[in-house]
Amino acid sequence: MGKQLTLVLGGARSGKSAYAQKLAARRGGANAVLYVATAEAGDGEMAERIAAHRAERPAHWKTLEAPTRVGEAIRTRQTSNVKRQTSPAEIILIDCLTLLANNVIVPLPEPVTGEAAEAALNAEVDDLLAAYAESQAEWIIISNEVGLGLVPPYPLGRVYRDALGRANQRLAAEADEVLFMVAGLAMKVK
Q1: How far apart are the C-alpha atoms of 41 and 170, rounded to whole Å?
Q2: Residue 31 reports pLDDT greater than 70
Q3: Which of 33 and 29 is assigned the larger pLDDT?
Q4: Cβ-count burial of 171 within 10 angstroms (0-12 exposed, 13-18 middle, 19+ buried)?
Q5: Dist CA 29 CA 160 (whole Å)
Q6: Structural domain of residue 26, as residue ranges?
Q7: What is the pLDDT of residues 57-93, one digit of tens each?
Q8: What dihedral angle (degrees, nearest 10) is formed by the CA atoms of 121, 53, 46, 160?
Q9: Exactly one of 16, 27, 53, 57 is catalytic; which is it?
Q10: Is 60 designated active site?
Q11: Helices 70-83 and 114-134: crossing angle, nearest 10°?
Q12: Cβ 14 vs Cβ 151: under 8 Å
């Protein structure tokens, strides 16, 4: 398929991950996918979700766990493959920007300001886009569209929603393709 950036957006349980995995499998070769997981198992429920995601994806895909500094981690992984004379991934699937936002915003000192949250998340998005620009791979990034629901009743929730919404806008502007998931169905936005 060639170098391309695809952003897969949707609400919770909209089918984003399943669709993105099918897309990666269809577009990549047998061992061509690098699955980049940003989730951290902070509790039992999250550990179960991570285990379910592991079980859903093909066992032969390579996995990179990177809760923060994702662009740097991908760059390092791809470079080390070249040094070991193994092929770098042809498809990089990042699941997901939503959790990456959580991982960089929640640790900020309270009270978290919109400016601090956006600066922390923008640093990650800047590095992701720089790593993508240096890469020859096709990238698929998953993110939640959190601005369609209720306004969060607490300040950190509103700061998070706003920062993620702006990050999604930045990625969508750079993406070659943007898909919006509803009830397991993909709608082409761009």
Answers
A1: 28
A2: no
A3: 33
A4: buried
A5: 36
A6: 5-188
A7: 888 899 999 999 999 999 999 888 766 767 789 999 9
A8: 20
A9: 53
A10: no
A11: 20
A12: no
Q: Left if phi > 0, otherwise alpha if psi is -120 to 50, otherwise beta: which for 13?
A: left
Q: Which residue has the tokens 């393709």?
A: 177
pLDDT single digits (tens) 4-18 = 999 999 998 899 999
In sequence order, the 6+-apart residues with CB closer than 8 A to the CB of 138 are 1, 2, 3, 4, 5, 6, 27, 28, 90, 91, 92
Q: For the chain, what is the mean pLDDT?
A: 92
Closest Cα to residue 71, out of 142, 128, 130?
A: 128
Which 8-state DSSP code applies to residue 44? H
Q: 25 Cβ partners below 8 Å, 6+ apart? A: 33, 58
Residue 56 belongs to domain with CATH number: 3.40.50.300
Report percent pLDDT > 70 for the chain.
96
DSSP designation for 62? E
Per-residue tokens: 87: 């092929």
CB burial readout 42-70, b (16+ within 10 A) else e: eeeeeeeeeeebeeebeeebeebebebbb
| Tokens (6 digits) for 169 | 């806008």
Residue 175 has pLDDT above 90, yes or no: yes
Number of domains comprising the chain? 1
d(CA 100, CA 61): 21
pLDDT at residue number 42: 80
